[in-house]
Amino acid sequence: MFRPKVPTNPTPTGLVIQPSVEPIATVRHTPLPAPVAQSSTRPAVQLTPGTALALVGGGTAVVLVVGTVLVSMLLAVAISGVSVAVCAVVLRSLLASGRTHR
User: Fold this and answer.
1) Does the pTM of the predicted model rise above 0.70?
2) Below-70 pLDDT ranges, the chain
3) Which of 11, 54, 55, 79 shows the smallest number of beta carbons within 10 Å?
4) How far apart are the C-alpha atoms of 50 and 44, rounded to whole Å?
5) Backbone angles phi and psi of 19, in degrees to 5
């Protein structure tokens, strides 16, 4: 069941070309040259106190901006939900009062 079935072709169809025989190539086993460690061309990063302070300040600013945006989005969703709820209560009250006065 799990063995592949190779299709057999007892008679070739079309033009049959005999493969040409190539001469055997000679192979020489030569050792590969040892890899040479390359020196880094870019300078090493040096973290000075001023740079560290700038990174901390930039990170703090990013966190504050992202937090402000997320809180404002949450407030917008909450205010929209409250306004929809108030509209639903007003419509329910209007529909209920319309049925009782007729």
Assistant:
1) no
2) 1, 9-19, 21-27, 40, 101-102
3) 11
4) 17
5) -70, 140
Give backbone dihedrals phi and psi of 4, rounded to 5 degrees, phi first: -70, 145
Token digits for 46? 């040096």
Q: Which amino acid is at 31?
A: P
**How open is the CA angle 48-53-54, to the nearest 5 degrees?**
100
Is the torsion defined by CA of 55, 58, 59, 60 positive or negative? positive
Distance of CA 45 to the CA centre of its chain: 28
Tokens 């055997």 sit on residue: 24
Strand (E) or helix (H) holding 19: none
Amino acid, res. 77: V
Q: Report long-range pairs for 34-37 (Cβ below 8 Å, ≥24 apart).
A: none
